[in-house]
Sequence to fold (167 residues):
Amino acid sequence: MDTIPKILIQMLERESAQARSVLSAAEGIDPHYVPCSGIRPLEDLANHLAQIPIIDYKFYTTKEFSSFEQVHTFEKELRRSAIGDLLIVFDEGVATIVKHLKRLSDESVLKKDLKAFYEQGPKKSWAQCAPEITTHIAMHKMQLWMYLKMAGAPVSMWTYYGMSESK
Fold:
């Protein structure tokens, strides 16, 4: 029988593999591309997606951040322009979360002892936070995929789901 942490890891790893496919598809696309005025350029979105795992992890575990200014400073440190470098940031963040979750028991993953500095309300458990991180990745994976479609990149639903094109 699977443990709760193992199930959370499987969810995160599946979504992360798909996001990685979409990030990879941004290689060679104009990093300054903006689908319409008032939204961030492709490069900013790709950086945000790549940084989600480590930043969201730090929100709940290290307590390094007590303000959004600190978060923005860390985002600038992590910022990369090459897709290969963004994939490294992304992979390291995912690996950090997976390593952490692997150390947790079913009981500890359910313990409500997590709260990011910006959150109101009661503390949460990793059973709540890990799916939130996974859906945060999923949301921006879709956003980046749409940017790529609008930019004319050769992406398809195969790309979106991290699969090889069917021949």
About this structure: The two ends are 37 Å apart (CA to CA). The chain has one domain: 4-152. DSSP finds seven helices and no strands in the chain.
